[in-house]
Design a protein that fits this description.
Elements (H helix, E strand, L loop, with lengths): L3 H20 L17 E5 L4 E6 L5 E5 L4 E5 L5 E6 L4 E6 L5 E5 L4 E6 L5 E4 L1 E2 L2 E2 L3 E6 L5 E5 L19 E5 L5 E5 L5 E6 L5 E6 L4 E6 L10 E5 L4 E3 L2 E3 L5 E3 L5 E5 L2 E5 L5 E5 L7 E5 L5 E6 L2 E6 L11
Antiparallel strand pairs: 1-28, 2-3, 3-4, 4-5, 6-7, 7-8, 8-9, 10-11, 12-13, 13-14, 14-15, 16-17, 17-18, 18-19, 20-21, 22-23, 23-24, 24-25, 26-27, 27-28
């Protein structure tokens, strides 16, 4: 029989765990972003490889189950269905102005159009004669320019990729005419990628680094030198190097930058000032604004999908 002291300790421990879990399911107050106590609503768990969130043209939401080789749709009532099967391991997604769905793909590493099916095609699957390591995320401008990241194989991947046949991690651009340019190959693990509302600044999350990076975009689409835009919480040394867990990025109509990281959803002003962090039950991997007014922030990660009501909508006319 348990002694009363041990029973009391067990009850207190369970209460502490419940209280902690409950605290993770509501937001702190972040001016212009969320009110204090806003619920982080779980939509569903049990997905397989949660990535690539994007708003669909009808205002609903889709994301990639990369490991399951499909793109999944979440309706307004929270029900799920398959949007596209056999997606070649699609990861990051983005729509062009005419409704073509672009995807970075990892089973056979490449970037291309995956929907509608009659328009499916490969845009690029190698650069300078070498394959990509693991294309990760992309963003598409209204004019049709595509910016995408190749984060390379995981640091502990076996066998190691052959530098003679596989490109090192980098950020790339595909112009509307189909020209492919490498913009940067000095970022350890480029991951999420996003544009400012005016399409004049390109943001890149560096999973291994302590900062979200930024590049100014010139009128011809070329980019200036990289700069440290925002310092991330939770940057630490690991067995394979360093990591902030920085993954997907989203931008709201006021230019704030939202970063999915190991600390939660970190929010920064358009000047890179830390505004606050929204904790989640599991570390998020990617996020996007969706819904009829784009005032719902959808978050995916570790097999789960969540939604959060926000005060400022995402950028109008943009899929993410």
């Amino acid at each position: 029989m348990l002694k009363p002291t041990r029973i009391l300790l067990a009850i207190l421990g369970a209460w502490a765990l419940a209280t902690s879990a409950q605290a993770q399911e509501v937001t702190p107050a972040i001016a212009g972003v969320v009110n204090a106590g806003t619920k982080v609503e779980l939509i569903k768990e049990g997905f397989n490889g949660t990535e690539g969130p994007v708003a669909l043209p009808d205002g609903t939401f889709a994301f990639t189950e990369t490991t399951a080789n499909r793109i999944t749709r979440i309706a307004a009532d929270g029900s799920t269905s398959t949007f596209l099967d056999n997606s070649n391991g699609s990861n990051g997604l983005g729509f062009t102005a005419n409704g073509d769905l672009y995807a970075v793909q990892v089973l056979k590493p490449r970037v291309g159009i995956v929907y509608p099916p009659d328009k499916a095609k490969v845009l690029v699957e190698q650069f300078e004669g070498k394959a990509f390591g693991r294309p990760n995320d992309l963003v598409v401008t209204p004019q049709g320019t595509v910016y995408f990241t190749d984060s390379g194989a995981a640091p502990n991947a076996q066998p190691k990729p052959d530098p003679a046949t596989v490109n090192k991690p980098a950020v790339y651009q595909i112009t509307p005419t189909g020209e492919v340019r490498r913009l940067a190959n000095d970022i350890e693990r480029p991951n999420g990628i996003q544009l400012s509302p005016d399409n004049k600044v390109l943001y890149v999350a560096n999973t291994a680094g302590e900062h979200v990076l930024a590049f100014d975009i010139a009128a011809d689409g070329s980019v200036g030198p990289r700069r440290n835009f925002a310092k991330l919480e939770g940057w630490r040394k690991t067995d394979t190097g360093t990591s902030s867990g920085a993954d997907g990025l989203a931008v709201d109509a006021k230019g704030r930058v939202y970063v999915a990281s190991s600390a939660g959803i970190q929010v920064f002003s358009n000047q890179g000032e830390a505004l606050g962090t929204i904790p989640l039950p599991k570390a998020p991997q990617n996020l996007a604004f969706a819904g009829p007014d784009k005032k719902t922030l959808y978050v995916v990660g570790r097999g789960s999908a969540y939604k959060i009501a926000v005060l400022t909508p995402g950028v109008a006319g943009r899929a993410k």
